[in-house]
Amino acid sequence: MSTPAWFTEALATPSHAGAVEVDGVTVRYLTAGPKDAPSLVVVHGGTAHAQWWWPVAARFARDHRVVLPDLSGHGTSDHREEYSFDGWATELVAVIEKAVPGRPTTLVGHSIGGLVCLAVAASRPDLVAGVITCDTLLTDPDAEPPRVAGRHGAGPRPAPTYGSVGEARARFRTLPPQDGYADYVLDHVVPHSLRQDGERWGWRFDRGILAQFDERVATLAWPWLRRLRCPLGYLRSEHGLTPRSVVARLRDELPVPVLLGEVPDAGHHAMLDRPEELHTALAAMMVELGGEGRPAGARAGRSVLVRPRQRPEAEVERPPAQRGDRAR
User: Fold this and answer.
1) pTM
2) Domains of the chain, start order
């Protein structure tokens, strides 16, 4: 699969690196776009990092001030002995207050990054104009929590190392696994996911994160959701983690405007297999939210289905699956 022009152009978007210290740990982030534009803070999922989002998020830098943090234990940020959603929420607040101070921002979070966004929106409503969660873990509030793929609670396995970036790329896979990834996306993501130690390469994320969370993560969202005072968008992946029936509960359970959307033919990690469709769906949802998160047409307890136009079948061939060591 050849690299599309939009992807190459997005990678060339000028960006600046920033950092803030939170409880003795340096948390790093990227910024792009006009400083006086509406702000958009985009948060990665577990064991991922800002560069997973960068090709999609950079396209919003034409008319937004875009901020992409690396939460502690991820990407270029420092590691901690212990991790918690409260701790990550504190980090995100610190990034917002330093990078885009003085105005409410729209938060976008993938997977557990969406949980961090919800925690911030619930605890600091003064900072948040709207939240969009992308295939964030969500279980039926009346059901037993589902098992989430992974080796939770068993302690981290020894970290693998590789003789080259190419070897690491060949071993790359996600948690949870999905059917495939776009080659041109992995060409960008994998090198940013690695650190070099002598002549060997290893993944940047802290493997201790995998041992500190279990399937109960999927139950964390509801208390934060019920405390929201801003509009909510939920952007589901068609082949993602959360069933449509559970997502539909958001319309009935929450008193705030709720917008529902779906990225067609995408796995849980939509930025890796369907980045263009993810951008289209996210852009449509942001229009529906209106401005910096204020709803343009949704009412409390209602939904607006945002499903991007599917390209002709010949254009949506799924790339072959990649298998190897876990990176999420």
Assistant:
1) 0.88
2) 5-150+206-312 (3.40.50.1820)
